[in-house]
Design brief:
It is a single chain. This protein is mainly α. Helix content is about 55%, strand content about 5%. The chain has 2 domains: about 1-200 and about 320-365, Rossmann fold; about 220-315, Tyrosyl-Transfer RNA Synthetase. The strands form 2 sheets. The protein has a 3-stranded parallel β-sheet. The protein has a two-stranded parallel ribbon with strand order 4-5. Tryptophan binds next to strand 1 and helix 9. Tryptophan binds near residues 14, 48, 51 and 154.
Length: about 375
């Protein structure tokens, strides 16, 4: 297999809304680091609009509108189109072909056990309303995404691990039946636990648009500050400044765990050298929530203001953004078509690649 030695990254997002800080610390930041490491031969980032349609069939306009939001978020955090190929899923017909064949290698029982899909079914009310077959089977289409690019590494949030696991099972099954054809991918999730699962500003398990507990990468400074000041509960037992406080489960400290560095202290809170010192003071008592929140707002602004500036630059030149997407998608069409050809050959359904089958059929008829 030609690409066996290549190191290839594929990752992606559903274009259902603007990307938020949870996406940034859980995935985007790492993508940019991997991109700039120079260690990878090819990097693809997929805007998974087909996957987004599996639970938004009645609202294609929402998906269409959010493609631009997601691309702008990518470009503004430092995804560089010269190094990473950004492409749109629905324009890659090979993915549909692969999905169709992989469906035969997965049982409905196996699909029912995918914990992420199970949770999503609950969240979306599909358990009562009826479950769209396309949504139920989207892990198969995600396996097509990953394998179509010959991805060796898939950097994702923790909730995506079951998808990579299912992809690996499909790859192993495919290769066993049809011969060594597909590349076996590995998942990569953030090392830091708080980065893996940044809670919403209200402390709820996850940032989610419907809960209104997000900080979006494109939020203005006033919105960010107000989310911190108004929505972040700290420690209910820390009533007066002099009371001892808890840092565990205190969302201000969770965010600081995920984002702040010692340099942030030098710049904005030089009375402390590091987060451990700040936490120790908070636990001892004598440190107010206001001071911690103000520091967090500064840390957030240091993270978000360059992203915001970059976003504004690209937003003023949507023609160029379109061209980036067009060129990236054209490159991805080639890449994924090549994989589909390989797959069809392995499955012996490559009838029209050449006329060899004429001889085969003639021989069958002779015998
Ligand atoms: N399921 C991913 C999400 O919900 C998006 C996605 C689609 C993806 N295809 C992918 C992620 C391939 C990684 C690799 O965020």
């Amino acid at each position: 297999m030609e690409n066996k030695q290549k190191k290839i990254i594929l990752t992606g997002d559903r274009p259902t809304g603007r990307l938020h800080l949870g996406h940034y610390v859980g995935s985007l930041k790492r993508r940019v680091e991997l991109q700039n490491s120079g260690e990878f031969d090819e990097i693809y980032i997929l805007i998974a609009d087909d996957q987004a349609l599996t639970d938004n069939a009645d609202n294609p306009q929402k998906i269409r509108d959010n493609i631009i939001n997601v691309v702008l978020d990518y470009l503004s955090v430092g995804i560089d189109p010269a190094k990473s190929t950004i492409c749109v899923q629905s324009a890659l017909p090979a993915l549909h072909g692969l999905t169709f064949y992989y469906m035969n290698l997965v049982t409905t029982a196996r699909l029912s056990r995918n914990p992420t899909v199970k949770a999503e079914i609950q969240m979306r009310g599909f358990a009562d309303e009826g479950l769209p077959a396309g949504f139920f089977a989207y892990p198969v289409s995600q396996a097509a995404d990953i394998t179509a690019f010959d991805a060796t590494l898939v950097p994702v949030g923790e909730d995506q691990l079951p998808m990579i696991e299912q992809t690996r099972e499909i790859v192993e099954k495919f290769n066993k039946i049809y011969g060594e054809t597909l590349v076996l991918p590995k998942a990569m999730i953030p090392e830091n636990e708080t980065q893996r699962r940044l809670p919403g500003v209200d402390g709820k398990a996850k940032m989610s648009k419907s809960l209104g507990n997000c900080i979006y990468l494109s939020d203005d400074p006033k919105t960010v500050a107000s989310q911190v000041k108004k929505k972040m509960f700290t420690d209910p037992t820390h009533l007066r400044i002099e009371d001892p406080g808890h840092t565990e489960g205190n969302v201000v400290f969770t965010y600081l765990d995920a984002l702040c560095t010692d340099d942030h202290f030098k710049e904005y809170l030089p009375e402390y050298s590091c987060l451990e010192e700040l936490k120790a003071h908070y636990r001892r008592g004598g440190l107010g929530d206001g001071t911690c929140k103000k520091f967090l707002i500064n840390v957030l602004e240091e993270t978000l203001s360059p992203i915001r500036a970059e976003r504004a630059k690209w937003a003023a030149d949507i023609d160029s953004v379109y061209d980036i997407l067009l060129a990236g998608t054209a490159k991805a069409v080639e890449k994924t078509n090549a994989t589909l050809s390989r797959v069809r050959k392995a499955m012996a359904i490559d009838y029209f690649d050449d006329r060899r089958i004429v001889k085969e059929w003639e021989n069958i008829l002779k015998n």
